[in-house]
Amino acid sequence: MKRTRHSAEQIVVKLCESEAMLAAGRTVAQVVQALGVSEQTYHRWREQYGGMKADEARRLKELEVENARLKKAVADLTIDNQILKEANDYLGKPHRPRGGGAS
Predict the structure, then answer these.
(1) pTM for this model (two decimals)
(2) Hey, what long-range contacts does 18-21 have (CB within 8 A, 24 or more apart)?
């Protein structure tokens, strides 16, 4: 089976079509065959996008992308912060004088 990526809007449209088909008396197996997706994909879509409108699904995807970008930025800044703390700890420690003992 050919693997395709569906946009959030396409998924919402297909879910609306599936609801109409189910209301017309078709079985889930017939519906997923008509949509061209697996039953597992259909159930995952219903769980994730059930009851949404196309603009809500689009906004959800935009927020997921922005959230991923912000998480990456926080991770990068955390690493930078740890490096600076380690450098500060290393440079900020008083060092014992080298050389002979107290005479």
Answers:
(1) 0.56
(2) 18/42
